[in-house]
Amino acid sequence: xxxxxxxxxxxxxxxxxxxxxxxxxxxSASQSFFWYRQDCRKEPxxxxxxxxxxxxxxxFTAQLNRASQYISLLIRDSKLSDSATYLCVVNLNTDKxxxxxxxxxxxxx
Amino acid sequence: EPExxxxxxxxxxxxxxxxxxxxxxxxxxxxxxxxxxxxxxKVEFLVSFYNNEISEKSEIFDDQFSVERPDGSNFxxxxxxxxxxxxxxxxxxxxxxxxxxxxxxxxxxxxxxVL
Lengths: 109, 115
Hints:
The structure holds two protein chains of two kinds. Chain A is mainly beta. Chain A is built from no helices and eleven strands. In chain A, the strands form two sheets. In chain A, strands 2, 4, 5, 9, 10 and 11 form a six-stranded mixed beta sheet that branches. Chain A is globular. Chain B has strands at 5-7, 10-13, 19-24, 31-37, 43-50, 53-57, 65-68, 75-79, 88-95, 105-106, 110-114. In chain B, strands 2, 4, 5, 6, 9, 10 and 11 form a seven-stranded mixed beta sheet that branches.
């Protein structure tokens, strides 16, 4: 089983739509959780950390379910500029971040 | 805004040649990392570096790889004898805190092509 598993997509949605991405992780000892965003052929950039209680940053909402080892990201009111690959990332309380393969989002006008 | 800078942006080399990729982390950061991403695949951890020594490395980071912080500003990744499968984008990253409690800041990457 992959350490971090994501649906690769692509998710093609119109502007203004709400879209949700899911991610599962295999190691129950995982301590920290993140969503990174990666534009085509660019470096990953932190979108948001994911906290146990769930957290929101503007149009973005992240949820964590430790029992099911499941992380989600909800994007409301999608913009063209949201088109990117969204990377689910976990950490086992070591120096190493473990990345998923990413879910590609394409927002069209 | 402070950023991590990497050089070269693209390097083409022959199999068996040595390659050095250079990075200048953000100046007040203490933890330094190399990751790589083979085209179309996930980002993979190679090595972390703190207090002038390797703190963790992956199974990818074998004897062909080494890292160095020679002058207190540059952080380098050396591949001694490149293989075709070393072709990838190599990302340097730095952070203020270890244990990835804080944000990792990535450079724009160095694309390595091994022929």
